[in-house]
């Protein structure tokens, strides 16, 4: 189907729309590869290695021709490895059952089912829904290629939903410390039974590849750029100190600023207070996806655990994931057989205006929250709404807090930081977005952990003032003035590809947050990780 669309100059240009009656298949044939000339063997036989006379000899033996040298015949196989035959692989799309007969009866594809070595298929990639794979016609056609053909399935049942770069980075970091940097989990939202076959069939997953030459095999690609031997002693020391199921556990879901990028998502931090209670600090877009990647098939349980969300301010990179979290949490409660339990939302009052507009014009969501205005949790605040007092008491009781306090910070209007003090004694302080702020220092005195934004590198203080953010050294200085036992820096500008720039004399009380990094309070293991970030692994 064709239609006209104006380009920027106002002229009409033709746009081709996909014909729904067509599906596409690609038959790819890799050329045969000539054998490798054996230089050392040629030297042993006295051939003229290193001058122009060797060129026609190399050409001849690579073409499989024997040669005569000094009156003696030398066989081609003595000087050259065997050639590698051509390899065929097919990429096939079968969108629904209506295409099955067309695929099974296609004359081009039938040619590759015949017993002909030149047409032997190494791999078929099926971009095919599960309903097609379960159809007996398609199943019989797939199995007719024989047991020497591998089949790769790409469809809605693929377990991995990872971005290649984030998965690769996490896999590399996992070599440094498998508990602090756990491998990303598979999230399999559909629990349907997969089709079974009598031939080799593989479900697609992130970083999986199939090697055609020199040996046909599946490989899981994880590029590691440091020598693991240099880590062994430190790794052994760190791993012996691991304490399982220690709380609170901090999971960084988004450690970048402004917009999501391939390495860092926007702001969100999960604080697991106990095995059954959690608090989410900010909720930027993509937070639900990050939770899926971190917890995999345990996602519904984790959503049910979230008792409260703190939104520091109304910039989009801190709250646009909220709606999806509310809806997915409601779905999870139903699927887990849990009673309806509205989530406690601590946020600037102005956020409620946006929620009301969405509720009135798009989808009903106000029943999923009980809102506590952030200003009601400031020190000596006048809580003039009766419901707010009830909600605050519920927050304290559910999460086991002795104190949950907020303060206004130096960013936009109605921007807040927060401090959580648990009955067991730990204290976690979260800055949100801010310039160095005296009120935050006062509120966070003697914190067990300070999570502070460090958007910009040192030397960019003027830009930090203009954008009301902090540099790395400014964030560290806030933690030192606060007497925080440990400082985790996050909310890095996306201009930094992997890690921001730091001064070499940074304290061992300071850590760099990465997406999907998880730490427990008190932080005893992180300095070892800090030392490894400069080894080129990341």
Automatic annotation (TrEMBL):
Cofactor(s) needed for function: Zn(2+)
GO molecular function: 3'-tRNA processing endoribonuclease activity; metal ion binding
Gene Ontology cellular component terms for the protein in this record: mitochondrial nucleoid; nucleus
This protein's record includes keyword Hydrolase: yes
Primary location group: mitochondrion
Catalyzed chemical reaction(s): Endonucleolytic cleavage of RNA, removing extra 3' nucleotides from tRNA precursor, generating 3' termini of tRNAs. A 3'-hydroxy group is left at the tRNA terminus and a 5'-phosphoryl group is left at the trailer molecule
GO term, biological process aspect, one: mitochondrial tRNA 3'-end processing
Location in or out of the cell: Mitochondrion matrix, Mitochondrion nucleoid; Nucleus
PANTHER family: ZINC PHOSPHODIESTERASE ELAC PROTEIN 2
Identification of the protein by name: Zinc phosphodiesterase ELAC protein 2
